[in-house]
Amino acid sequence: MAKLKELVIEKKKRQIGRHIFLTIGLILLTAYSISFLMPLVWALLTSFKQEIEFMLDKFSIPSNFDLANYYTAFRTMRVPISLEGGTVYVYTWEMIYNSVVYTALCTITHTLTPCITAYAVARFNFKFGKVIYSIVIVTMILPVIGNLASEIQVSKFLGLYDSMFGLAIMKGHFLGINFLIFYAAFKSIPKDYSEAAQIDGASQWKIMTQIMLPIVKTTISAVALLSFITYWNDYTTPMIYLPSRPTIAYGLYYFNQTTTNEANFVTVRIAASMLVSVPILLVFMLFKDKLMGNFAVGGIKG
Amino acid sequence: MADARREVYFDKELKGLKKLFKPLIVLWIIFKRWLSDVFYSLEVLIHNIFKSKNEKPKKIGTKRRGERIFFIALIAYPILQFFIFYVVVNINSLLLAFQEFNIETATFQYAGFKNFALFLRDITQDPAMKQATINSVTLYLSTLFIALPLNLVFSFFLYKKVVGKGVFRVVLFLPQIISALVVSLMFRYFVENAISEIIGFNLLQTKSTGFSTIVFYTIWASFGTQILVYTSAMSKIDPSLIEFGRLEGMSMFQEFRYVTLPSIFPTITVFLVVGVAGLFTNQASLFNFYGPTARGDMQTLGYIFFVKVIKNNDASFAQYPYASAAGILFTLIAAPVTIIAKNLLEKYGPSVD
């Protein structure tokens, strides 16, 4: 009887231990979440304030939610580019257009190149396929530091500098994690699928485009989504390689570095940042489950 | 996630990698064989084209040949791209390190080991460069000893289904979704306007706290990918192992220490190994904060060498060789360290008993 009591007490103790442990976790996570969301919420509130209101009280809730700052930011965000005739300004609409083109092209090459390469390596049994696989693994682990200067030189030499298509070609490599994702996806499809099609007389091209690629379309869309987010947010690559086609992300960077009259208010600058974040947050909210859910696509799914 | 997948293949591949470094010769032989295969199939292709159409092609081998041609067509562009933007770029980087820029003629000319000598002098004597080295090491160690444990602990809590798990998952992933530029700017404006109003001084502009704030920011905004990868690795741990431990009277901490940590250690290894290069490349978001004009006492090596080469003008061109030389020296340090770290971690890392 005494022993049983001891056991019960022991069990209760352990349960209390678990509860304490999880409570600590909850507190830690909550603290982090608040610390991360606080500046964002503060920024969102500030973006609605007038400069004077902001100067008087940095924490108050805006007296009225008007979009004047957003309007100013949209109107005055501009990047000077030097053409042969002199300096020309690129404004928001054009930068958005540039962003869309840049993001679309780079997402396509950055998704399809590893996809096609992985298909070739995973579905055909050639020795060179194994060489490609080794190249991917070795380049992922071995760091090469400081070849940016050389890359700029090579792209200029090949005439890819300052061209959207050139940049898309540069980003269309098969190295990195995307290759491994597609490799696993294609490996998991049974060989019978392509063999059955082949017996029916389908060409290799048909097998690839009409049977194999549709099977892995979930993987393709997830990788494309990630690339989309990366390229939309990326401003350093366009800054370096596209001097005459600034994107909206670069426009935001430039807007925060300049000291022209309109841009010189914190409230307007914050509004500009919010403006640029909206599309990406929308995309994230729409496709959240696809991104964060089970990324593993095993076997045959439609 | 992209990286969520990484561990699965890496676990396997890291082990098989030892073999890969040895046989460059084998690669060459395979390449030669492949080349002869290519020529053979081209020959066959040409032969088939010029053959009269009435003759039926041989059944045996046609299928394989068709596959080969298709295979070559698929990998032609990726291989060409790799050759130019990996092989040629890196060889050019090596050559660039031995050149110097002549401003008058706007051309590069041979300069011997001048850039290396210059860089070695700077890193040992130039106070700015010394400061940057110290900063880089500080940042690297902080990510190693603060950010990594935090990532692991957060992942463990999420894995153990703490209340509000779904919300925390999204919040912890937000730093990867919102543009790093926007997060940096919001943080900067928040610190400069709101926090400085409360504590009375500007954390970023005060010299004694400037770099610490940057380090804090780097850790604070670094969550996301790693957590996703770790939680997915943890969810693959055999439940019977945990059940057994629970019957033995194992506490949560013991479970973390003796079951979870050893089980996901191969995954941690991947991040540790890939992260070595970060010592030289981490820019600490300084470019997001300040553009090319960050204060000297905040700069890191990655930032300095990034800013040197990004402008499209002669001053930037003149820095190409110097930056390339530094990059080569960094690579010469980072590459062996990476391989040694990988081997050591695999050999002496904890394992499940």
Summed up:
The complex is a heterodimer of chains A (302) and B (353). Chain A is 72% helix and 4% strand. With 302 residues, chain A is mostly helical.
Report the order of strands and helices of chain A. HHHEEHHHHHHHHHHH
Q: Give the count of helical stretches of chain A.
A: 14
Major interchain interface with per-chain residue totals: A-B, 103 and 110 residues
What is the spatial order of strands in the main beta sheet of chain A?
Answer: 1-2
The portion of residues forming beta strands of chain B comes to under 5%
Average pLDDT metric of chain A: 85
Within CATH, the superfamily of the largest domain in chain A carries the name: MetI-like
Protein model, in words:
Chain A contains 14 helices and two strands; from the N terminus they run αααββααααααααααα. Chain A is mostly helical. Chain A has two domains: 2-46; 70-292, Orthogonal Bundle (MetI-like fold). A two-stranded antiparallel sheet of chain A has the order 1-2. Mean pLDDT of chain A is 85; it is low at 294-302. Chain A has helices spanning 2-46, 51-56, 68-76, 92-123, 127-141, 148-157, 164-171, 177-187, 191-199, 204-215, 217-233, 236-241, 248-257, 266-292, and strands at residues 78-83, 86-91. In chain A, a hairpin with a 2-residue loop joins strand 1 and strand 2. Chain B has helices spanning 2-21, 24-50, 62-96, 114-125, 127-159, 165-177, 180-199, 207-220, 225-234, 239-247, 252-275, 278-281, 286-290, 301-309, 314-317, 320-348, and strands spanning 99-102, 107-110. The longest helix of chain B is centred in the N-terminal third of the chain and has 35 residues, at 62-96. Helices cover 76% and strands 2% of the residues of chain B. Chain B is globular and about 80 Å long. With 353 residues, chain B is an all-alpha fold. Chain B folds into two domains: 2-112, no CATH class; 117-348, MetI-like (MetI-like fold, Orthogonal Bundle). Classes of the chains: A mainly alpha (302), B mainly alpha (353). At the A-B interface, helix 1, helix 4, helix 5, helix 6 and helix 8 of A face helix 1, helix 2, helix 3, helix 5 and helix 6 of B.
